[in-house]
Design brief:
Helix content: 25-40%
CATH architecture of the largest domain: 3-Layer(aba) Sandwich
Strand content: 15-25%
Number of domains: 2
Number of helices: 10
CATH class of the largest domain: Alpha Beta
Length: about 300
């Protein structure tokens, strides 16, 4: 079977895949134009959605596409076909996302940035640090990644509340709520963490009304999708001390334009969409597992319902 790899890291993916599956005929590149002729002979594609979308627009149709991203928004455009199997990256982001969130939550409790500023000013900073124990963490998005994060945070003695489209009893969350309950749930949270995917229901979810219901001591972290946040409203909330701070990994436009107010907003830290990168090793293992399922005619992990958008 011929497999097309279309990704910025195509060389690494190709090396890993050919080492594990020497019988595969692999075509790899990072330019849709350069792989166009070969793509028509490859029923299976492994690649990043933005590049795959460009190739689809050139009239080439795969049988199955394995996305190297968890998000597949570029492939949901109305002008693109949806008559092929699409699987998104699942099961490989839980630990890296947990490490990202833990980094900034602990930095917040230990007042890392404030101590750095004190050192720059030659001031001895002996303020007592906080602790995660007993903090109320609201994870908005309790899917596969959210559950992995919850299990990691549970070891620190936090109080966990999850938000899901269909609330149900889910370990290790102490309680679960629906998206419609978010205005009430944010009122008692010390950390509000957005992990929601990009769907019509999640656009502009975090607006001024919601920020005003949060505790002034709360930290807001967005590691889900940029369009979940009304940018101007977050800026206003921070400028008016309605929040202790914000960690923003994802933005509506990336890279963030030079004129965007986020660059100068007080107590807002940008992390450049680095929260949960795709690690090629685990990604290739997921692809190999799904490839076996594909050959056997079995359900694949992370299959996308185009109607739902995930």
């Amino acid at each position: 079977m011929r497999v097309l790899i279309l990704d910025r890291d195509h060389k690494l993916y190709a090396a890993l895949l050919m080492a594990a599956e020497p019988n595969l005929n692999v075509v790899a590149g990072d330019s849709p134009d350069k792989v166009l002729d070969a793509a028509s002979e490859c029923p299976v594609w492994l690649g990043q959605p933005d590049l795959v979308a460009q190739l689809l627009r050139k009239g080439v149709h795969p049988v199955w596409v394995q996305s190297t991203w968890a998000g597949i928004t570029p492939l949901l455009a109305t002008d693109l076909p949806c008559d092929y199997a699409l699987t998104r990256a699942v099961g490989i982001f839980g630990q890296v996302m947990s490490e990202y969130l833990l980094t900034y939550m602990l930095a917040h409790e230990r007042q890392f940035l404030g101590r750095l500023a004190s050192q720059v000013g030659s001031q001895w900073d002996d303020r007592a640090p906080g602790s995660l124990r007993g903090r109320h963490v609201l994870l908005v998005g309790a899917g596969e990644i959210g559950q992995a994060v919850a299990h990691m945070l549970a070891a620190f003695g936090v109080e966990l509340t999850g938000v899901a489209r269909t609330p149900r009893s889910l370990q290790p969350f102490q309680r679960m709520g629906a998206l419609s309950e978010l205005p009430r749930l944010v009122e008692t949270a010390d950390y509000v963490i957005n992990l929601l995917p990009d769907t019509p229901d999640t656009h502009d979810l975090y607006d001024l009304a919601l920020f005003q219901r949060m505790k002034p001591s709360a930290l807001f972290i967005n590691a889900g999708r940029g369009n979940a946040v009304v940018d101007a409203d977050l800026v206003a909330a921070l400028e008016n001390n309605r929040l202790a701070g914000a960690i923003i990994d994802v933005c509506r436009e990336e890279p963030l334009p030079a004129h965007h107010p986020f660059w100068m907003t007080p107590r807002l830290l940008l992390t450049g969409h680095t929260a949960a990168p795709t690690l090629p090793g685990p990604m290739v293992e997921l692809f190999r597992d799904n490839l076996s399922r594909f050959w056997a005619g079995q359900a694949m992990r992370g299959e996308v319902d185009f109607a739902r958008g995930y």
